[in-house]
Amino acid sequence: MTRPNASHEPLSVAALTVGIKETLESGFPDVWVAGEVSNFSRPSSGHCYFTLKDDAAQIRAVMWRGSAARLRFDLHDGLELVCHGSVDVYAPRGSYQLVVNEAQPRGVGALELQLQKLREKLAAEGLFDRARKRPLPAFPRRIAFVTSPTGAAIRDFLQVLSRRWRGVDVLVIPARVQGEGAAVEIAAGIRAANRLRPALDALVVGRGGGSLEDLWCFNEEAVVRAIAASEIPVISAVGHEIDVTLSDLVADVRALTPSEAAERVAPSGDEITQRLQTLSGRLHGAARRRVALGHERVARAARSRPFARPHAMLQDTARRLDDLDRAANRAVGRQVERGRARLGAIAGKLDSLSPLGVLHRGYSLTTDQQGKLVRSASEVSVGDRLTTRLARGEVVSIVDDVTDTA
C-alpha cells in the first residue's frame, strides 16, 4: 500500500463519498432491476423500504410515497418484482440504494397478454353482453357464497348481511381462492350450488383483495364459463376496486368488495321499515282526505233540494204528470176528431158510389129468382118471379108480358 505524500493529500470521507455518489448516480441514472422483496416495511410516512435480492446479491431499495400510491398491487415479502429507478448514495451512512419509481410483479406482462386474449375470445362468444345480465331477487331467502371459509371475505359478508337483513339463510361452499387448483375448486363450487334443492335465490363468488397473481383464478376460463352457465344470478365479489376480473364481467352483478356484495344481494331492513312507515303515513293521509271528501259530499247532498225538500220533488213530478195527462188527452181528442172527419169523408165517397144511394134518388134494382140482377127485358120470360128493391122496401111481381126494345 502506498502512503500519501505531500503531493497527494488524502481524501476526506465526505469527499470520497461525494465522488462515489457522483459516479454511481451518473452511471446508473435509469435502470431496470429484477429481484425478490424482503425486509419490507411501510411506516406511517407512506414510504416503502425493502431489500431487493437474488441468489448472489442484494440491494436496499426505497419507493417514496408518491410512487407507492400509484401501485395497483400490494408489496410484501417474497414478491418477485421488476423495478425501474436510479441508484442513489446516502452519504450519512455511506450506503447506496435503488430509488424505485415504478414496479410490477415479475411475469405480469405475460399474464396481462394471456388475460387480454382470453377476454377477447369470451367477449366474441357474447359472455359479457349486458343482455345476459339477470336482476337479483328483491327478497332472497337462500344465498350461497363460494369462497374460502376462513378468509375475511365471508366474515365481512356475513357481518354486513346480518346488520341489513336477517331473513336469509347463507350457505358457504368452501373453495380455495388463490394458487394452483383454486379455479377448479371455484368452478366446482358454482356447479354444486346450482344442483342444490330447493334452489338458491342468489350466488356470490369472490374473495378479499390481492395482487393480479393472487386474483388470477377469477380470470381463468373454467371459472368464467361456470359463472356464465349458472342458472342462479351470480354476484362477483372480488375485492379489488382497481382491476376488473373476467368474473366481474361475466357475472350478473359486480360488487367491489364482499361487504358491498351483501349490500347488493339483500335489502336493508331499516330502509324497508322507513319506507313502510312513509307509505303507511301516505295511506293514512289519503284515507283521511277521502273521508273528509266523503263528509263534504254528504253535507253538500244534504243541503241540496231533493234532501232539503223531498216532497217538493214529488209534487213537481205529480204536476208534470198531470200536465202530460192533459196534453195526452187533448192530443187523443184531436186525433179522434181528425179520424172522424176522415171517416165521414170516406163514408160520403162510399155512399155516393153505393147502389143504395142510387135507390134514394128514385131508381130501383130488379133481380130474378136466382138473385141475378136483371139488366134487359130479354133476360126474363113471362111468368118469371122478379124482386124489385126500392129505396124503402121490396116489391115482388110476376111477369105477364115482356117487350124487348133492342
TrEMBL record:
<dbReference type="Pfam" id="PF13742">
    <property type="entry name" value="tRNA_anti_2"/>
</dbReference>
<comment type="similarity">
    <text>Belongs to the XseA family.</text>
</comment>
<protein>
    <recommendedName>
        <fullName>Exodeoxyribonuclease 7 large subunit</fullName>
        <ecNumber>3.1.11.6</ecNumber>
    </recommendedName>
</protein>
<keyword id="KW-0378">Hydrolase</keyword>
<dbReference type="GO" id="GO:0005737">
    <property type="term" value="C:cytoplasm"/>
</dbReference>
<dbReference type="Pfam" id="PF02601">
    <property type="entry name" value="Exonuc_VII_L"/>
</dbReference>
<dbReference type="GO" id="GO:0008855">
    <property type="term" value="F:exodeoxyribonuclease VII activity"/>
</dbReference>
<dbReference type="GO" id="GO:0009318">
    <property type="term" value="C:exodeoxyribonuclease VII complex"/>
</dbReference>
<dbReference type="GO" id="GO:0006308">
    <property type="term" value="P:DNA catabolic process"/>
</dbReference>
<dbReference type="InterPro" id="IPR020579">
    <property type="entry name" value="Exonuc_VII_lsu_C"/>
</dbReference>
<dbReference type="InterPro" id="IPR003753">
    <property type="entry name" value="Exonuc_VII_L"/>
</dbReference>
<dbReference type="InterPro" id="IPR025824">
    <property type="entry name" value="OB-fold_nuc-bd_dom"/>
</dbReference>
<keyword id="KW-0269">Exonuclease</keyword>
<comment type="subunit">
    <text>Heterooligomer composed of large and small subunits.</text>
</comment>
<feature type="domain" description="OB-fold nucleic acid binding">
    <location>
        <begin position="11"/>
        <end position="102"/>
    </location>
</feature>
<keyword id="KW-0540">Nuclease</keyword>
<feature type="domain" description="Exonuclease VII large subunit C-terminal">
    <location>
        <begin position="127"/>
        <end position="345"/>
    </location>
</feature>
<keyword id="KW-0963">Cytoplasm</keyword>
<dbReference type="GO" id="GO:0003676">
    <property type="term" value="F:nucleic acid binding"/>
</dbReference>
<comment type="function">
    <text>Bidirectionally degrades single-stranded DNA into large acid-insoluble oligonucleotides, which are then degraded further into small acid-soluble oligonucleotides.</text>
</comment>
